[in-house]
Amino acid sequence: MLAKFLPSPVLILDCRNISFSQPDPAKFNIYGTSSPFRNLVQFCCWNTRSSYEEQELVLSKAFGFIHSPYWGEERKQKLPDLDSVAQIMSYLKELGLSHDELSKLLKKFPEVLGCNLDNELKVNVQILEKQWGIERKSLKKLLLRNPRVLGYTIDCKGDCQALCTRCWARF
User: Fold this and answer.
1) Exposed, middle or buried: residue 40 (CB in 10 Å: 0-12, 13-18, 19+)?
2) Which of 106, 123, 128, 165 suits 140 as a labelling partner, its CA being 20 to 30 A distant?
3) What SS3 class is residue 151?
4) pTM of this prediction?
């Protein structure tokens, strides 16, 4: 009962009007309403059959305009390039992903669009095929379950380098 007599150090907040939702990508959009960015978002919408807002959020995470644990502090804001995004989406479709599956993959791992196609994505798919024996349908299922394997760039082999979000040890 001692608590009744002591002043409370707790500040009471009125949380009735606070909403917790995804950040508004427009706040992070340095492109404004420029045509190249709009074209890129529309291109992504067409390829994934998803909304403009979803793809704007995906691109903002992929290119460092919204913080992502995958990139950590190393990712600097980078202007997305339509050609590189188109090549990555084309490659993912070559792996057997449909429009809907591509949309699901991008929701789980939007950063894939900011990865390097030749040095990361293709190399990781080769690792999955050659070292792990995961091909075709199994590979497609794996990518839908755990798309982050496309962005793994570190193999610490037990000697942790503190880059766990990008490490094969998680696989």
Assistant:
1) buried
2) 165
3) helix
4) 0.71
